[in-house]
Amino acid sequence: MRKEKAMADKTKLEKTISQLEKRIEEINADVEQITAMRAKNKKQNEEEIATAMANEEACGKAIQVLQEYFAAGTESALLLQETSNADLQTNTKSRVSTTNVADSVIALLETAEADFAKSKIDVQNLEQSLKSQFEQKTQDYKVELATYPVQKYRTRTNRSHARQISCSS
To answer: How far apart are the C-alpha atoms of 169 and 149, rounded to whole Å?
Structure first.
């Protein structure tokens, strides 16, 4: 009777160990997969952030250069302006046309600059979110693994097996 109980306990413990070891293998495979995905996402997000920053900066510089250029062009046009009415009307139309084009181009660049800034912020927020999710998932797995007494079960199984052998002798 005692021997049968010991065998039943041993079988139960072996089954529990097998289930725990299978779960540990699943966790390890998932951790490997999410770690690889995290590294890939991080690299991609860093590249997107760097690109958005570079584009935002380039738009800002282009706006500055165009503002300086068109401001200098307007001053030059005023200095070169002739005083006759016909020439005055032509120069005024040209200056207005140039100013409208300049304003449109600068407005377009300002919109692009704002879009790149927003894109950068969005990707930074996404990166932070993905990082937090990854850290939470790995922490959950650490906690779960810490609760698995596989070694304790193995020790018990070995003791049961040793008792069983000594009882059989």
So the answer is: 30
- Residue 124, H or E segment: helix 85-146
Task: Give the C-alpha separation, 160 to 21, whole Å.
Answer: 20
Pick the CATH number of 2-168 from 1.10.890, 1.10.287, 3.30.70, 1.10.8: 1.10.287
Radius of gyration of the chain (CA): 37
More confident residue, 1 or 138: 138
Contact by Cβ (8 Å): 34, 137: yes
Question: Average of pLDDT values for 140-154?
Answer: 78
Helix (H/G/I), strand (E/B), else coil: 77: helix
